[in-house]
Amino acid sequence: MIVFITSLIALLSATTTLFADDNWPQFRGSGGVVEDPTLPETWSATENVKWKASIPGRGWSSPVVWGDLIFLTSVVSDGDEGPPQAGYYSGGQQDIPGGEHRWVVLAVDFETGELRWSREVHRGRPTEARHLKNSYASETPVADASRVYAYFGNLGVFAFTHEGEPAWDKRLEPLETRYGWGTAASPVLHQATLFIVNDNEKDSYLLALEATTGKEKWRVSRDEKSNWSTPFVWENELRTELVTAGTNAVRSYDLDGNLLWQLSPMSSITIPTPVSENGLLYLTSGYFGDEVRPVYAVKPGASGDITLEGGASSSEHVAWSWPQAGPYGTSPLVYDGIYYTLYDRGFLTAHDARTGKEIYDKKRIDDVSGPFTASPWGYDGKIFCLSEEGVTYVIRAGADYEVLGTNDLDEFTLATPALVRGSLLIRTASHLYRFAKEK
Predict the structure, then answer these.
(1) CA–CA separation, 376 vs 363, rounded Å?
(2) Rounded to whole angstroms, how far apart are CA atoms 420 and 418?
(3) Dihedral (C-alpha) 199, 252, 321, 285: value to the nearest 10 degrees?
(4) What is the rounded CA–CA span in Å between residue 142 and residue 24?
(5) Which residues of the chain have pLDDT under 50?
(6) Residue 300, preceding bond cis, omega within 30 degrees?
(7) Which 3 state secondary structure label does DSSP give 150?
(8) Which of 141, 203, 432, 435 gives the lowest tally of CB atoms within 10 Å of its CB?
(9) Exposed e or buried b for every residue in 98-132, given b needs 16+ CB within 10 A?
(10) Would you say the pTM of this structure is higher than 0.85?
(11) In what order do the strands lie in the sheet with 193-198?
């Protein structure tokens, strides 16, 4: 009997792992890297297109996948908001637009691209401004086997079953963001708890909600102003931590909201999401106007204030660091032992992920490319960097930098793609593409 039970547990564990790998439940999946030789290396608006679906409204949330459904969010206006803004920083905030807006959650069939359901969660005129390059639906939803959880930063959280039935909702107070730039940090889910960071100009907080009911489990105040970094659940060899990046400090909490450690300084605008690999946690921020644009590689088991002292680049808890190597908006990529940084102005750098040693300095991807906002991803020995103009540059992974090719969609995008089951999902200004190799 013991042998049978042990075998059954092993089988269930293996099945769970397989099922989890078949999904892409949150922003960047598990860090933007998969090993799947069936994924396409070339595509265009006509090549390797499994389907192309029109998406109403505007939103820069990434697609997430569970089972046979792709979930994403959008805000549809009855007025003309003009084309989305490209370029470097684009002049700041936009005035609050007029006209009626509809905040919607969408479910798209993975196989066919057909809209399975659309649910409106709010209707009215926006009460807050947003940056010209932001949207009112920039937070990526998160999904599990039962529900999808859609978070709109200054509106609330809305949970639906996979069939589109409302499960629960929790309205949140709208709070002022820096210069009216709006919100963008996505929620994360771990062990039936939904974690949300809302860093703003008035009352920043970290919030934990029961995923099954939406009930508030705890709320922790944060000594922060506006930031846009998605929190990260770090499951390391010693414990599980909830890591949040902010301007004043990176802070790590246990799953009950107790502070474990903190680290500073950071950039005055913090956007990139942490990532872990090789037993290390990688943290960065890099507002282009700051002198401090750090990268840190943190070891498990830290406690208290682990800020480096006296110009040191490493310590008991920090494996390595660089003071001026952080990107502005993109999150870093760790692939096959190398830490890659994609800068919004179109440069790529590579460092040894374990030691921080420089492999190559800034390489200009394309002399004529526009800026980059989507985070890079990697598979099959290649790094993929998607520009705002809709051009993906395919770059050889490893020590020898080489651009192998380009894939052009000729449509504006800021959203980071999803990689699942041999398919690449790219959201543009008005469409969702599913790319897969022609069989």
Answers:
(1) 15
(2) 7
(3) -10
(4) 9
(5) 1-20
(6) no
(7) strand
(8) 203
(9) eeebbbbbbbbebeebeebeebebbeeebebbbbb
(10) yes
(11) 188-190, 193-198, 205-210, 216-221
